[in-house]
Amino acid sequence: MNTLCFSAPPFPTYITGRAHCFKKGKKHIKRIFSVFDLLIVKSGVIYMSENGVNYDVKEGQYIILAPGLEHFSYKPCDTDTHYYWLHFDIDVHYELKEVDDINWGMIIKQEKTGIEAAKHVLHIPRYGTLINEKFIDSEITRLFSLDSTNKPEKRLKEQIIFQEILLQLQSDAIRIPTSAEQVTKQAVAYIQANYYKEMIKMDNLSKELLLHPDYITRCMQKTLGVTPMHYLTSYRLTKAKDFLSNTNEKLDSISRQIGILDSAYFTRVFKKNEGITPSEFRRLARREGK
């Protein structure tokens, strides 16, 4: 099944929901619904068909049925099947994308400014297994506990709790292995193109890639075994060693050309990583080059 993708804020709007049970031998009715229907199975199996494709939604799994697509039980329940249903709607444009078409790291769409809120893109698989089932269960219990009153503050609190449920599904869905190499490639390309600039920070990298700094760091550690800042230092020192080996430029000039304005700091970083000072490296390189 494909993935539900949309920008937030605004978040989808929770409408209503209930805990329910299909008795053994019972089936979900055939219908085309006008809103999204999130089903979370607590026990048993719901044999659901949507748009001609069958899904066995088992205990601890969920399915999000999309509006405009016919769905129904393709066979009766084998046992009493307990589940939650939650109806919600999305007022903004959304897409149903295939997994291979999604960049799972593309969460940040627009950074916040002084006058505009940050924009994010959520990618929630429409069929999957709950990773943090206890959290989802507790949040749904909180959500349903508010249903007995019509006080405005309770209705607003429903929306906040429903947002937490969607964010947990999004968190469960982030797949670093499928995008780590791509993110690392983009980060490395940016560093190699800008290493000579003094002020390269994680914030710069995050804004360039439109990804959270922690996500970029996890991807690079998974792929290369180093953080972005460690890679930056390593790449700068590689360039410095090339200058030391092949030019007569002074240390302060080399230091500035690799993005480190303080030549004393450059010497300390070089010795810490290489075990010798830049001057010692130059002497050894020239001796070996003779």
Automatic annotation (TrEMBL):
The keyword Acetylation does not apply. One of its GO terms (molecular function) is sequence-specific DNA binding. Keywords: DNA-binding, Transcription, Transcription regulation. InterPro entries: Homeodomain-like_sf, HTH-like, HTH_AraC, HTH_AraC-typ_CS, Tscrpt_reg_AraC-type_HTH. This is HTH araC/xylS-type domain-containing protein. Residues 185-284 form the HTH araC/xylS-type domain. The lineage of its organism: Bacteria, Bacillati, Bacillota, Bacilli, Bacillales. PROSITE patterns: HTH_ARAC_FAMILY_1 (PS00041), HTH_ARAC_FAMILY_2 (PS01124).
